[in-house]
Input
Amino acid sequence: MWHSVFAFTNIVALAAWIVLVVLPRRPFPLTLVLYLGVGLLCLVYTLGLAGVVSGTLAPGAGNGTGAGFGSVEAVRAIFATDAGVAIGWTHYLAFDLFTGLWIARDADAKEFSRLVQVPVLLATFLVGPVGLLFWLAIRERRARQLHGRPK
Output
């Protein structure tokens, strides 16, 4: 089951990233990315997490393993099961896609060309926080210029 969840979330995320990077930034494609991309990934994450925590989807997962957030070992125990990996990966996919959507909207609002946006979006897709860091550094000057511009 968890292999299917993993594969499904990868397909959803990849399709949403393709829409975000390739298609024109009109309301409908952006709505698809937000709700059928980010929203669906959040739903899968929430249902998977609830199913594991309740024991419904992965009976015994985490019981007696010391799983938690208080140490490296405790976090490792969370990811020691297929359920933990699939749910954790879905978490990453959802937040990276949401970050990419924010970057794309912010870049459009600040009138950055797609030539600047695409490498940043690809970095966000592949190594989330690195792409976000690049965007925060790139956008700063333009954000200051736009903020100081008379209305």
Summary: DSSP finds five helices and no strands in the chain.
